[in-house]
Amino acid sequence: MVQIVPSILSADFAHLADEIGKVERGGAKMLHVDIMDGHFVPNLTIGPPVVKSIRKITGLPLDLHLMITDPDKFAPLFIEAGADRISVHYEAARHLDRTIRAIQHEGVRAGVVLNPATPVAMLEDILYLVDHVLIMSVNPGFEGQAFIPNALKKIRVLDGERKERRLDFSIEIDGGVGAANTAEIVRSGCDWLVAGSAIFHSADPAATVKEMQHIADNAVAVRV
Ligand code: DX5
Ligand code: ZN
What we know:
By secondary structure, this protein is an alpha/beta fold. 38% of the residues lie in helices and 18% in strands. It has helices at 16-25, 48-57, 71-81, 96-105, 150-164, 179-187, 197-200, 205-221; strands at residues 3-6, 31-36, 62-67, 85-89, 109-114, 132-136, 170-174, 192-195. The site of zinc ion has 6 residues, from strand 2.
């Protein structure tokens, strides 16, 4: 099922429970949580204690995007804090196969993330193992950046490979997503559309989630 996935990076962190309540009312089925370490990306966000607090105030699955240089060291802490899904960057995981298996061994879904300049071809020998692939449509680190259209090509290639090899990983996109490009992203074969500023900086986040979900559902109907 195609889903709009709010990224809480753009929410008001002083009122996080209220902000999450808004997107829940809008029908969101998953929350995207950006973890930045100030090394892999030039920004810092939150750590396990905040994830643990979020876990207590929502029943929605937590989709953690680890933008950190040492995923093997920190993934266990985020699993303990309540992550349902963990995505690690291809560019940060030195032994990606081991990292993915270690996360899955703990009963948590594991995915790999590609930066805009990393080709989909690098995933040939891990696709059969991962639960999802996250395609970055901005360079990671900040909300509110412009969408890089080349991500659409990468999604089409991935979706083609998924069909050809009869694999069942999900395809996720992150960065610069809003109502204006939702339809073409869905038509390219994407399942989960992460959106931060488009949702939380809108006047009515619940209505924006609903509107984007509606556009996405209509685009699925015409997907070839
Ligand atoms: C960027 C983060 C994104 C961010 C997207 O590094 O990974 O999840 O929240 O924000 P928007 O939707 O504003 O581009
Ligand atoms: Zn993200």
